[in-house]
């Protein structure tokens, strides 16, 4: 009979200083067995009163707490009741039956719950799969817990700190020679590429140089060849299965010769293809001794400061801490830094293998890499969507409590304790979530493909393949969602006063938690509005970037990467094509994010003061500037036509004048001034209006154009005027094939290249757009459910109103005004929040952005209002149109 | 059952219950013990001993009437059972028997 204890109204005592702490009392009640509870409570109370008199309330309360904790003994603690659990397990079938009946009886509510949860869980599944894939990077390495990468921190007086994944060859050598306590250490170097020649076949091949310890540190299995010696001798080559097949077909490759230009390499090993989830990927490895043999006389190769393309990995013996090694590395760095000039400091650090795929952002990093912030954001978005669906579940469950209250009442009277009712409703929500998981699993399979197709980088990064571990996580996620969704409804139902609901259902307050429910709706709609507005703003900014006036024209310009071929030869072929209007040559393509730096010195002719700084540079021929329609502030294009190495002229932008204060920043007067670049005195012949050399995320910085008519220029820019682009492209390809028979042409339109540069923004906009679509769907479903429910509950009221002469429109207004008010509140919360977020945090990071437009805020509100009005209106109309007699005749 | 042998503290508590007659409840026992032995007796220890004595069948307990003191909680009163009395007597006899066989015991000599 103890369940009825709960229905006895508790004596309300005024909260004052003379009461023992409530929480401690509850704790005592919870753990103490009933036989001794009352006596113990009384005793403690007596002591409390004594202490209160002698020492004051604070001390008395403190002692009360201590005593409650001290009485937690074997003889006071309640025996855990297993019978309850046993009964619960027996009851599960009954709960499931009730659940199933409820599911079928309330088809609409079941649909809303399951559909909403399924959609949101599928997003969760995607994030879980993504994170799990990233976390299992490099798991195939046997020594994964002991492998560290040596990374460099580069600081100099006039530049910001740079964190590099790469380090110098010297660092690797010095560590090997001077530091003990390392099991193995290997040096790798990137940048080997050439055309592999086997017989008469040519195949372009990228490879990585690696020394003989490579296979000791990493566990990339060799199918053929000896891992200990495969990379020892100079000019040894280890191919992967795939590249061996490409080069040799089905012929045995081991021991064969592969020629690169004039140098012959011997195939000493065949490695298994590298799996996708590895941050080191290679098609071929070349022994590090080969690069050492060819750069014997290159001082810079062994320089401490040559930290740009070498990677050092090491393993520590089992069960050793990296602290000591780190200290040794710091000591070594300090020692070696003494030889560096210009205040440059290079500090070596250790990075555990497991922190490479998910970890800090390093320059020169190899392999894919995602920073934890991105994962947190993804997880956060998924969480928001899942919570939104959980809100629906809570809302609808509690709203429907009127129907189920009697069931709960009877269960309680028959003998179900608090825990069982709680368990019943938790079971229901968990089963709803598991049911949703089935649907969301299929949704996931569909979404996965969409997600991977979103950006080529993504499909390169992860495969999102199913595994048992992943499925286990999916089920855990669904159970977690069920618990979150069901907790509050379960608590609500298990607290129902049994006698009251059974005796008089009318007294049961359906609208008791109405404010919480309203708040939940406001939260859902605020989130939806924020997402929609974000999508709109993001999309416009992205479009703005693509159509941004860079300061020069990019339309109809085709950039052809020369891949080592002669630009002049190609141009000679190209000018034959009628659609080609003009051609030019350049070292690099601006505005795509890649940069070339040069040190520029300027000696002020008036006071002789010297200034030198890093400046961005491009080498172009004299057709380049007119072809791209760069605008001159003063002066004109290059005049002289010097031979290679005899350049004398330079064209700079306005920022350069500003930075070096050349001729008081007056473009006209700056003409004729001299600057020193690469130890060459160059005369400024033109000043360009500022344009974007870097991407739009960066401010415009000083830029210099230098003249170069080098026939080996890296890029050829072609201005095309054609109505038949495919035909023109075909003839350009023909021209290319005449000069290079091995490599396929690499030609891209400038505008496409720009689009690719900002592809990450496009991915973001698409992602957030998708999330906002889901958010608004789920919020609408929830709202719909609430409207249906309200209309049902107020059916009689509507009937009476109608009988008394209310008009249809009046009734619709009556039913909708509350909800529309909620949407209004949501808009008032969401829009200023979005505005501030973008105005203060996001847009300042994009230096050249469009201002936010009014419509970006009005459209979401209108769209959401329209959708909600349709949902509410349709139900309100239905309720208002029913025959009042029908509703009033029931009972 | 550990038998009817009494520990020193158990014996003291039993004696206290007997001495307090109809007013023997935990806090009172605690106070009485402190008064007579001169050492501070913790409630927790008294509770533990009381539950042990009850387990051994040496004391009985019943809940008293509710009063407005003690936050409205009833007191649990203890009384010594027959077995308890027997155990007390047995302990007393054992001591006296020992005392009796000590030859010429006086305080001066022991120091």
From TrEMBL, chain A:
InterPro entries: ABC3_permease_C (IPR003838), MacB_PCD (IPR025857), Macrolide_Exporter_MacB (IPR050250), Permease_put_prefix (IPR047699). The keyword tRNA-binding does not apply. Keywords: Cell membrane, Membrane, Transmembrane, Transmembrane helix. Coiled coil: none annotated. It is a multi-pass membrane protein. The chain crosses the membrane at residues 81-99, 111-132, 373-394, 430-451, 471-498, 519-539, 768-791, 811-837, 857-877. It comes from the Bacteria. It is found in: Cell membrane. Residues 110-331, 545-733 form the MacB-like periplasmic core domain. Residues 381-497, 770-882 form the ABC3 transporter permease C-terminal domain. Pfam families: FtsX, MacB_PCD. NCBIfam families: perm_prefix_2. This is ABC transporter permease. It comes from Emticicia soli. The lineage of its organism: Bacteria, Pseudomonadati, Bacteroidota, Cytophagia, Cytophagales.
UniProtKB/TrEMBL annotation, chain B:
SUPFAM superfamilies: Winged helix' DNA-binding domain (SSF46785). Coiled coil: none annotated. Residues 15-88 form the Transcription regulator PadR N-terminal domain. This is PadR family transcriptional regulator.
């Amino acid at each position: 009979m103890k369940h009825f204890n709960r229905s006895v109204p508790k004596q309300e005592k005024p909260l004052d200083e003379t009461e023992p702490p409530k929480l401690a009392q509850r704790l005592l009640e919870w753990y103490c067995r009933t036989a001794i509870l009352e006596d113990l409570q009384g005793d403690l109370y007596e002591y409390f009163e004594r202490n209160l008199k002698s020492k004051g309330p604070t001390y008395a309360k403190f002692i009360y707490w201590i005593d409650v904790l001290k009485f937690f003994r074997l003889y006071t603690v309640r025996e855990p009741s297993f019978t309850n659990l046993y009964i619960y397990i027996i009851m599960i079938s009954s709960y499931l039956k009730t659940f199933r009946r409820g599911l079928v009886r309330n088809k609409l509510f079941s649909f809303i719950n399951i559909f909403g949860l399924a959609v949101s869980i599928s997003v969760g599944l995607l994030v879980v799969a993504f994170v799990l894939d990233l976390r299992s990077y490099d798991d195939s390495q046997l020594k994964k817990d002991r492998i560290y990468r040596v990374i460099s921190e580069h600081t100099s007086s006039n530049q910001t700190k740079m964190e590099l994944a790469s380090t110098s060859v010297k660092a690797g050598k010095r560590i090997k020679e001077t530091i003990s306590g390392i099991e193995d250490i290997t040096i790798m170097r990137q940048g080997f590429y050439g055309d592999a020649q086997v017989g008469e076949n040519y195949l372009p091949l990228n490879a990585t140089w690696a020394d003989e310890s490579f296979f000791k540190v990493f566990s990339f299995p060799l199918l053929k060849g000896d891992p200990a010696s495969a990379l020892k001798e100079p000019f040894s080559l280890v191919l992967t299965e795939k590249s061996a097949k490409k080069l040799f077909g089905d012929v045995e490759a081991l021991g064969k010769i592969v020629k690169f230009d004039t140098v012959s390499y011997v195939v000493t090993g065949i490695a298994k293809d590298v799996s996708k989830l590895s941050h080191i990927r290679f098609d071929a490895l070349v022994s590090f001794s080969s690069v050492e043999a060819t750069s014997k006389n290159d001082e810079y190769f062994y320089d401490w400061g040559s930290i740009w393309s070498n990677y050092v990995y090491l393993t520590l013996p089992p069960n050793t801490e990296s602290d000591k090694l780190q200290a040794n590395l710091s000591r070594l760095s300090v020692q070696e830094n003494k030889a560096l000039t210009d205040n440059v400091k290079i500090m070596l650090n250790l990075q555990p293998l497991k922190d490479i795929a998910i970890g800090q952002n390093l320059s020169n990093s190899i392999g894919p890499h995602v920073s934890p912030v991105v994962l947190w954001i993804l997880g956060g978005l998924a969480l928001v969507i899942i919570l939104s669906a959980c809100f629906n579940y809570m809302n609808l469950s509690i709203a429907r409590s009127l129907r189920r209250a009697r069931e709960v009442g009877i269960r309680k009277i028959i003998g179900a304790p608090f825990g069982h009712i709680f368990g019943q409703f938790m079971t229901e929500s968990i089963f709803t979530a598991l049911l949703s998981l089935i649907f969301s699993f299929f949704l996931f399979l569909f979404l996965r493909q969409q997600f991977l197709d979103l950006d080529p980088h993504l499909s390169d990064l992860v495969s999102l393949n199913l595994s048992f571990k992943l499925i286990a996580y999916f089920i855990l996620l669904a159970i977690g969602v069920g618990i979150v969704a069901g907790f509050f409804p379960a608590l609500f139902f298990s607290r129902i006063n049994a006698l009251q609901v059974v005796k008089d259902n009318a007294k049961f307050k359906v609208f008791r938690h109405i404010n919480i429910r309203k708040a939940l709706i406001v939260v859902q709609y605020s989130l939806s509005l924020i997402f929609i507005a974000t999508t709109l703003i993001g999309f416009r900014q992205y479009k703005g970037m693509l159509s941004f006036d860079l300061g020069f024209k990019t339309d109809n310009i085709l950039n052809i990467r020369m891949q080592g071929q002669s630009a002049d030869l190609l141009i000679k072929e190209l000018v034959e094509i009628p659609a080609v209007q003009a051609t030019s040559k350049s070292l690099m393509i601006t505005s795509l994010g890649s940069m070339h730096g040069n040190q520029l010195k300027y000696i002020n002719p008036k006071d002789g003061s010297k200034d030198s700084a890093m400046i961005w540079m491009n080498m172009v021929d004299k057709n380049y500037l007119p072809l791209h329609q760069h605008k001159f502030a003063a002066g004109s294009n290059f005049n002289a036509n010097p031979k290679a190495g005899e350049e004398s002229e330079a064209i700079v932008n306005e920022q350069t004048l500003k930075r070096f204060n050349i001729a008081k920043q007056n473009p006209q007067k700056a003409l004729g001034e001299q600057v020193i670049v690469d130890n060459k005195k160059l005369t400024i012949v033109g000043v360009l209006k500022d344009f974007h050399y870097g991407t739009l995320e960066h401010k415009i910085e000083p830029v210099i154009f230098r003249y170069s008519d080098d026939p080996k220029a890296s890029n050829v820019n072609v201005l095309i005027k054609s109505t038949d682009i495919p035909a023109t492209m075909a003839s350009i390809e023909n021209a290319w094939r005449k000069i290079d028979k091995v490599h396929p042409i690499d030609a891209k339109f400038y505008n496409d290249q720009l689009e690719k540069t900002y592809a990450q923004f496009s991915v973001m906009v698409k992602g957030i757009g998708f999330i906002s679509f889901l958010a608004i769907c789920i919020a609408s479903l929830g709202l719909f459910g609430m409207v249906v429910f309200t209309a049902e509950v107020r059916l009689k009221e509507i009937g009476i109103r109608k009988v008394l002469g209310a008009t249809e429109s009046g009734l619709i207004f009556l039913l909708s005004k509350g909800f529309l008010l909620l949407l209004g509140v949501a808009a008032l919360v969401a829009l200023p929040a979005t505005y501030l977020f973008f105005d203060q945090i996001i847009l300042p990071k994009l230096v050249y952005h469009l201002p936010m437009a009014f419509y970006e805020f009005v459209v979401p509100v209108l769209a959401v209002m329209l959708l909600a009005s349709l949902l509410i209106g349709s139900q309100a109309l239905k309720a208002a149109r029913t025959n009042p007699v029908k509703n009033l005749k029931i009972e | 059952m550990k038998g009817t042998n009494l520990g020193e503290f158990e014996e003291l508590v039993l004696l206290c219950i007997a001495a307090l007659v109809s007013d023997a409840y935990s806090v009172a026992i605690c106070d009485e013990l402190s008064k007579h032995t001169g050492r501070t007796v913790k409630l927790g220890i008294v509770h533990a001993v009381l539950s042990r004595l009850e387990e051994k069948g040496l004391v009985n307990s019943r809940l008293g009437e509710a009063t407005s003191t003690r936050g409205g909680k009833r007191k649990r009163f203890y009384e010594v059972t027959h077995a308890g009395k027997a155990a007390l007597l047995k302990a007393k006899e054992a001591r006296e028997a020992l005392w009796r066989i000590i030859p010429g015991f006086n305080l001066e000599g022991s120091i």
